[in-house]
Specification:
globular, 7 helices, DNA-binding, 4-stranded antiparallel beta sheet, homodimer, 37% helix, alpha+beta
DNA sequence: CGCAGCTTTGATCTGGCTCAAGAGTTGTGG
DNA sequence: CCACAACTCTTGAGCCAGATCAAAGCTGCG
């Protein structure tokens, strides 16, 4: 699964856990971990299950900002204002560890190592996703979906799950929102990849058959059209999501 | 000008400057402040001039990530890895204040206020731009350019420059890269806005004639076609830049 | 003055959105 | 356990914003 704004690795978790009082939370499918506007009190380390993070557009529509799984940290988006900008919802039965952020912060003052790790939460999670988003603007829909799959594979491998056999708990609509396309396009792209024999698709169950073909595709054009094979895109002008 | 990943307000500068030894740097047009891969030692507070921040795509092409002016902080992208991901180039004669980051960090440990401000660097600058980028994916080219102009106006007003009369030092190519479109589209959109009487364009010199019309345009479709006036876009499915 | 790099404008093409219609799938109540 | 309703997913046809290709105007520096 993709990482959301606040994300980090397992070893960071370990260090945080040693230092700070925290407690587990168990959620069922559809249950909310926190909502936009909620007071920012805890950050949450996902231990099992998958979460959907989202922001609200000014017109009230939901914009998916990422999917989080074991090893990811959720909730840091509230740091700036003291309230969460976005929300997080469990997509299945799941467990998180809630850590009071105030305590984290005060402990960080007396502990340089912990300070580094709290800083690292931002540095790794946020700056990396910033970089990703900028470059993502220059990719076609197919490239974005392929990257999503590769990233899902990598993340699953990191935490010890199968790197080629997923049961995506999120809907096509969620994926479409995250990747900035329509559900129809997501569906068509999955079908196209399946037709090429690169993946197998059966509703929410997806199997990567040829990860190398997928990686090779990373710099290629859509392949949605009737062309026999995808065409190389010449190294030309980029498109990018913009800061402003 | 738009803010780049590390950005903050003037009052933060003031507090940082009181606490940490720093020194000024003067640059001419085209000179590099730091490059991708450089060791991360300083953060830089821009005092005058405009800088272009960029990242390198894996194929070596440059992706503009923001423009920074007086009151912005540059260079924090190196925090995660100890090396700068991106680079920054002066677009004209300019002055920055270089601050050794290690000192900033150690001072932060003994000073809760300073710690808050260093945290604030991330919270405000990065998280906000994260939010922006996500929602920016759902906007048309015209909306993105209009937002760019409005933001430029606001930033200029904040630091005491004219909020309606700019001499953009960056090329159309830079703007196009930042906003994720082609130079032709940037040029056409400027022309369209000029035709509507909303702005005046003369190469790099741009004047905002009707800021309210610009603001009103914020939620409207392109207007590039032959239609007499721009058409409202119904509140429908969003497009978005994605984390992954 | 002349070349080299910007910028503008026109003509055409196309990836991905829209609209529309089915085919699964899941949940609910009888 | 089945039937019906409510979703979710797939697939097709057509359209349009913005990319691509092409060709002039500007600007400014040596």
């Amino acid at each position: 699964m993709a990482s959301s704004p606040p994300a980090q690795t397992e070893r960071d978790d370990a260090i945080l856990l040693e230092q700070v009082a925290c407690f587990p939370l168990y959620l069922q499918r559809g249950q909310t971990l926190f909502s936009p506007g909620d007071k920012f009190t805890y950050v949450y380390a996902v231990q099992s299950g998958v979460f959907k993070s989202f922001l609200l557009q000014h017109d009230g529509r939901e914009q998916v900002s990422g999917f989080s799984m074991k090893g990811d940290v959720l909730g840091l988006d509230g740091l700036g204002t003291g309230r969460h900008d976005g929300g997080a919802i469990a997509l299945g039965t799941s467990k998180v560890l809630a850590m009071p952020f105030a305590e984290l912060e005060s402990k960080a003052r007396s502990n340089a190592l912990l300070q580094r790790h709290v800083c690292g939460l931002f540095a790794r999670g946020i700056v990396r996703s910033y970089y990703l988003m900028l470059t993502l603007g220059s990719m076609s829909s197919m490239e974005r979906l392929v990257r999503f799959l590769i990233r899902a594979s990598e993340r699953c491998a990191e935490v010890g799950y199968s790197d080629s056999d997923f049961n995506f708990p999120m809907t096509r609509q969620d994926i479409a929102s995250l990747l900035g396309m329509t559900i129809e396009t997501v569906s068509r792209l999955f079908s196209a990849l399946a037709r090429e024999g690169v993946i197998e698709v059966n509703q929410k169950h997806i199997r990567i058959v040829d990860i190398e073909a997928l990686r090779a595709m990373h710099r290629m054009r859509s392949g949605l059209s009737e062309s026999p094979g995808p065409v190389m895109r010449p190294p030309e002008a980029p498109r990018a999501a913009a800061v402003l």
